[in-house]
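Colleagues,

For the teaching module next term, I've prepared a clean inverse folding example: a structure given as tokens, and then the sequence designed for it. I'd like students to try predicting residues themselves before seeing the answer, so please don't circulate the second half yet.
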């Protein structure tokens, strides 16, 4: 196997391991974030106590008054869908971006196009390849929707399996929110990989990004992850609300925005941001850092 094939295999294998570990550790916080995004009432109340009561109701719903153990279990719905989606997503995103990046660098026409960015050429190729990968990620949207439904509205599935849902509702039912997803993923992945590359390039002065140490990968991916999560949260709220509706209940992103502004105010676009920063940033940092660390080991690098 050539060097390119070995590198690609190492990256994909590392991303698989990272995705599997990630879902076990971070699924509860992801569930909490999705339920807060789906909560179509104001979270802020008259005082801290009322606000936390609203958060409790939004996240735990019918189990709001149950024991801590019951609440904890309720944060792990849809684990099978989540596992399948997350592993495939991480393999696709963190395994695929280096392949697209290397293709862009190796294509003379594309590579010369990025000469306009001068010394930041390599950084912009990293960011652009990430954005392209983010757009293509919509192929996994049906699994994402099933995961979100299990987290926020399991009644919509009526106990049906993924295959039963697709057979009865049609394959396109799984692609609800595709526009909002693309609008979120393109800039989200751009800032994730671009912010990470910026940190490696400008702050650490690395010529070869793959030479980054564990600590440098951790710090750089933290910068990229915070930028990605914070800047795309409004589109994530819209996407979640489009996807968590009953099958057959079609709701446009425009309608969601109109109702959200009317009933909850503009601050609702940032619902779920706190648990997302607590969960999604460490998840992305974890997945990126573990992927890069394992990939280096599999490639025989120190």
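(Answer key — instructors only)
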């Amino acid at each position: 196997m050539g060097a390119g094939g070995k590198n690609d295999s190492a990256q994909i294998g590392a991303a698989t391991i990272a995705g599997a570990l990630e879902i076990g550790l971070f699924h509860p916080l992801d569930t909490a974030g999705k339920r807060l995004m789906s909560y179509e009432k104001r979270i802020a109340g008259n005082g801290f106590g009322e606000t936390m009561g609203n958060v409790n109701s939004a996240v735990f719903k019918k189990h709001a008054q149950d024991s801590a153990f019951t609440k904890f279990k309720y944060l792990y719905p849809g684990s099978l869908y989540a596992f399948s989606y997350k592993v495939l997503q991480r393999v696709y995103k963190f395994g695929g971006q280096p392949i697209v990046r290397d293709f862009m660098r190796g294509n003379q026409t594309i590579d010369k196009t990025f000469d306009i960015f001068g010394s930041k050429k390599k950084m912009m190729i990293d960011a652009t390849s990430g954005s392209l990968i983010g757009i293509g990620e919509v192929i996994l949207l049906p699994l994402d929707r099933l995961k979100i439904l299990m987290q926020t509205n399991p009644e919509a599935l009526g106990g049906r399996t993924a295959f039963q849902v697709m057979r009865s509702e049609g394959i396109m039912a799984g692609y609800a929110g595709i526009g909002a997803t693309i609008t979120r993923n393109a800039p989200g992945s751009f800032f994730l990989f671009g912010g990470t590359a910026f940190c490696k390039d400008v702050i650490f002065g690395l010529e070869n990004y793959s030479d980054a140490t564990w600590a440098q990968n951790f710090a750089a991916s933290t910068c990229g992850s915070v930028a990605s999560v914070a800047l795309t949260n409004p589109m994530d709220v819209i996407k979640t609300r489009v996807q968590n509706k009953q099958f057959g209940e079609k709701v446009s992103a425009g309608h969601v925005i109109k109702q959200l502004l009317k009933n909850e105010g503009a601050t609702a676009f940032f619902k779920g941001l706190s648990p997302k920063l607590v969960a999604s940033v460490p998840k992305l940092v974890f997945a990126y850092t573990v992927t890069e660390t394992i990939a280096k080991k599999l490639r025989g690098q120190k």
